[in-house]
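Holo prediction. Input below; ligand is cytidine-5'-monophosphate.
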Amino acid sequence: MSSHIEDRDVPQHRDVAVLVPAAGQGLRLGGGVPKALRELAGQPLLVHACARLAQAPSVALIVVAAPADQVDAVRELLPDATVVPGGATRQQSVANALAAVPAGIDIVLVHDAARALTPPELVESVAAAVRAGHDAVIPVLPVVDTVKRVDATGAVLETVDRAALRVVQTPQGFRRGVLAKAHAEAASEHTDDAGMVERLGLPVYCVPGSDHALKITRPLDLAIAAALLSL
Ligand code: C5P
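Structure of the complex:
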């Protein structure tokens, strides 16, 4: 991925809404505040994430699903975003945010606040793939570790061929109608939106992800993110 956005890649107009589910408690990160509000270099992760989204030339609108008791506080942090209350699950938070996207916006990205350092170039690359005709797009990285399938006792069942595996990041991009249909027809809870599209039997297209789009989940990830910021 290039370090800057080429002129030929910039869309004619801002045609993308990004939904940011940020209503989780994020207990694995500790700190006593919702994960999206944990600070990195003096600013909440959510503010880092939205600043990078706003730098992407395609992005017309950012809709944040905030913890229900923090909606006003998040509106103060992000005066340019639309802020709605999140739900009991990530999926419900995404659905709440999707309902706030105005008519006329046809490309919707879903991005976890925890991927706070995601470069604008990755946002553009996902949006461009949707614009080019792919109804569902995910950024992925190769798997570098050996992966084994194990049973509940910890016994190894098999070694999986990692060449065929990918780690999935966000933002995930969708033609709006496809995301809305996936949410309307989802029978169970899914941890990612592309998984819901797969359940509909529709194709999902991969683009190269970014090491900088790491999910800040554990205390070690905060240290890695701080190091990335200082590069
Ligand atoms: O818990 P996990 O790390 O999978 O959460 C992924 C994203 O979904 C986080 O950004 C989190 O804030 C968000 N989320 C949400 N509403 C929930 C649960 C999680 O917006 N009820």
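The domain at 7-230 is CATH 3.90.550.10 (Spore Coat Polysaccharide Biosynthesis Protein SpsA; Chain A). That is the main takeaway for now.
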